[in-house]
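# nightly structure sweep
# worker-07 picked up a monomer target from the shared queue
# config: single-sequence mode, recycle default, output format = structure tokens
# input follows
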Amino acid sequence: MANKQIIEYVKAKYDYIPQSCWIADVKEQMGFNVPCAHNRKDKNTRKCPCPKDKIEDIKEAIMQDVKSKTQSSAVSETSGEHRKLCHGGTNLAETVPWFGKRNGSGKRS
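# output follows
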């Protein structure tokens, strides 16, 4: 869940650029593990917490990012199903002697 995608989403939908400290604050409120910034003076308080009117926008962007990552992992699981159906579940490296073998230079032997 990179801040860049969250910033792009909020900018496109709500026409403002959220500060990274706001995103960190909202992620922390949502229960995500957020590392402490190296330049943070007090570990227990935030100098720039997210403004109350921006919290829901940023939460929506975070959830959208989580949802898109969940869908992309479902696609990779589906491709595994495709491999089972179309290739009989076989491992090509086991059935084709040259498949996947490379010599020391990184080229197939």
